[in-house]
User: Fold these one by one.
Assistant:
Number 1:
Amino acid sequence: MGQAVAQEAVAQRSIATMLLDWTPTLLGGFGFNVLISIFAMAIGTVMGVGLGVLQVSPIRPVRQAAWVVTQFFRNSPWLVLLFYCILLIPFQVEVFGVKIRFPGWIKAVIGLSLPVMAYMSENMRGAILSIPTVQWESAESLGFTRAQTMRDIILPQTVKRVLPSWMNLYAVLTMATPLVSIVGVSDVMALTRAALSAESRVDLLIQMYLYVLFLFFIYCYPVSLLTRRLERQFSVNN
Amino acid sequence: MTWTPDQPIVSIKDVHKSFGKVEVLRGITLDVMKGEVVCIIGPSGSGKSTLIRCINALNDIQAGSIKVEGQEVHDAKLDKLALRKKVGMVFQQYNLFPHKTGLQNVMMAPIKVLGQDRVTVEARARDLIRKVRLEGKEDAYPGELSGGQQQRVAIAPSLAMNPDIMLFDEVTAALDPETVKEVLVTIKDLAAEGMTCILVTHEMGFAREIADCIYFTDRVIVEGGPPATFFDQASDPRTREFLSQIL
């Protein structure tokens, strides 16, 4: 019986060592998740702001088209969008003799940026509409054009209003990045699976996935803390 | 035909305006001479705000004519920028851009709209802040100012455009009673300098004091005249009833 306990102690220790051994690999993979999330967020934000502005366009067909695009991508499963981008975007395109390659992870970035764009578009629309109409009229009375008003007066005011939901969206996006492992990108999830099959140790399974969860938690939780603080701060200021 | 200062600076003729099926202006005719101070009073929903919004083309009209310095406002080919340079407007609230300081608010339009030089604009903006008696508050954001101070600053951006006419749309209606006066004093200063002012207001004492002419509207101009005769000898029963409720 003493022998059994000793054996188990060896097994326990070796789980910790195994986790430690795999940590550089897993962290590398997690870094890739972070990278994908940052790129997807950046692209999605820029496109989302543009689409949100189009959603309040005075030109009806523009407004409607922007609304349709927004609703379509907002109501599509992220994984399906990912598959779509992986299959639809060619491996490389040639523009004026220059070959641009699209490796899997870039396609994944594009795929994830689409729902970000749609959520951002909707947030922007709400933020723009929440600015009192008198601001528009006041600017108009001072001779500002619509475009100038949007750029110099309305959009700067929306920053505060969308910032908390923007950060929240970022946390959600980061937590969705393991989806890219399904479409063949070597993120933390794919590497974890590789590590587990290399070790082929059943008792490592739960520990290692817990470890991955923990990685996401320590990255995302500060974001959500900061979001809560900003929300409180802005609600006091307004 | 060019406009000369002996003609009305604002000439409104038989203006009709509807929102959907509701006709809020039913043939308004009104002339304002240069340097005149005109107050428009009337019950809520009588179209008085709509009327002054039409003067700087924030609202369009269905029929009639509005001329500012001889230029027809009710015209699809209207040069809106030229009109807005001539006509300044202050609203009930939210005039100022909250993400800019008082001084920046005053400087924004001359720089971005007129393309004027920042240094000269800043000097003029500081003068205007002094004029509305808020020196020392140049770097305060609107949120840091009281309601009355905000409305006083709010007059300055329009003045920075060097307008010939100022429109005031119930600028004291959202203020605490004790801060109303400081805003009215600022407007009085402006009127005393000879600025043409058209005000929609509920401040009867103020209207009596500064107006050259008061008009009572109820979708049409019911009657109008200089304050002395208007308040004491109102002939129309609608005017009398309104005045008896408010005075």
Number 2:
Amino acid sequence: MIPYVTAALLFGIGGYGVLRRRNAVLLLMSVELMLNAVNLVLVTADATVRATLPYSGQVFALFVIVIAAAEIGVGLAIVLRLYRLRATVAVDEVPLEPATADPVDRGAGAAPGTAGAAAERPRAGEVPA
Amino acid sequence: MTAADALLLGLGTVAVGAGLLVVTTRHLVRAGLYLVLCLGAVAGLYLVLAAELVAWVQVLIYVGAVVVLLLFAVMLTRAPIGASKDLDRPGWPALLVGGGAGLGLAALLVDAYRWSFVPLPAPGGAERIGEQIFTSWVLPFEVLSVLLLAALVGAIVASRPGGGR
């Protein structure tokens, strides 16, 4: 019962993160939390429920892990593409005009709502942490 | 309250606490590191639940690959080093939906399973899982390999400079 409750709470936290976060990378992290909750339910059900096929829950958990890896790869590729084109990764305000100059220098002009964030971003020469 | 129960409770607490920190922290990089903690705790839960292979695959793929990929994305999008102030949207609808889903599902599952004791099955090592995959689940396995190839090609096309238009 404890793993079931853990999985349910993790799913709720993931859903909260998906709706709350603005940064697309953090959004993907929340999606990972939700997928992990589903995996936890699958493995727990495999241990507690007697099925006709043994270990089917664990096999499904492995499949879900593979699908999550594929999803995160494609998702991050799309996010990086969006950053290169629009210089922002905020999911709720994407500027319509494409970026023309260097993303760091143009962030204040292209995305008025994220001007504060653009000012805080490190310059191109610095090493981001 | 056996030793397994205590382990499940402790690891579950760590997982939920780290998950909460992932969605509430103001530092992008720290969110990724808390995600490592959360996924590691879930891998420990798998080990307690006698799912060895799934636990090690979780450590390899999630902690090893997915989190590194996420941290690379954080770096490539030039995230600020310190705390960021504009990471969150207004939280009430999210709190409502997330809390509702989490607590509702928890209540449902508690009601379904109560406090039941089950004997743990034999540990699902690579041999048994592999036998199952290659006898009962061969077709999904092959379809998944095609999916992985498609995702690989899609990721390359989407991230190639000048391509994908």
